[in-house]
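Request: Have a read of the protein record below and say how the chain folds.
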Amino acid sequence: MHFTEVFVAGAGFMGSAIAFLIASRTEGKVILYDVYSDALKSASKNIERYSQSALSKGILSQNNFDNLSQRIVFTHHYQEAATSELVIEAIAEDIKAKQELFGQLDQVCQPKTIFASNTSSLSITALASATKRPERFIGMHFFSPAHIMKLLEIIPGMDTAAETVLSIKSYGESLGKTVICSKDMPGFITTRLGFVLINEAAFALMEGLSTAEEIDTGMTLGYNHPMGPLALADFVGLDICLHILQTLYEGFGDPKYRACPLIRQMVAAGHLGRKSGQGFYIYKNH
């Protein structure tokens, strides 16, 4: 399955990486949308950096490198999605903001256009309810950085058509991804499992079981994880971790998803991880 034009909504770190991935793997047009000029400028720089790195490593041919910038369009206008065959949303993890955006896009896009959300925890069925195309709505959860990580988790909503699932699975594979499929439950597969580990690691640190470094080393060397759970939490952002844990707790009502008080305290103090310069670790060059 191939799309000749894809609209990516949200030009942050994830959105810019998704746009680069699609442009580097296909010959179609990519429209990258954001309401903020600074986000689009940063996205352009990120994509240029990804391109240079891929070219130097032989991942991207010189011909593809030369043509890539011509296939990515940057815009402030969501109305430019009107001719796109696939919309991938990658804005902040806020259900109301996502529903509002999808509602706007639903009015300008063709009936056949497939809508996909990159959410890592929110209900696909609830997001689809903001549109008149629930049968053509699906979760398309990329992992950061999207142009490097091999996994793509797809999530059909309650009314997603089998044809939509097959189309997106095929498209994900054409982007070089290994595709797994989850039911539409809070956190899906990966977030549900991964954030229990992050939360438990935070409890272990709060209880004085060991240091952050040794807790992470236990998981990297003992379980062959590429990154320890506390370092991963810093990478994701502790504010985002807290939001996701709250979503899981509200979705299941199970106390095992109750956010560790240490995470709450750190977020209140503004210690959000890499992006703030301090989290479970100190980052001098954030």
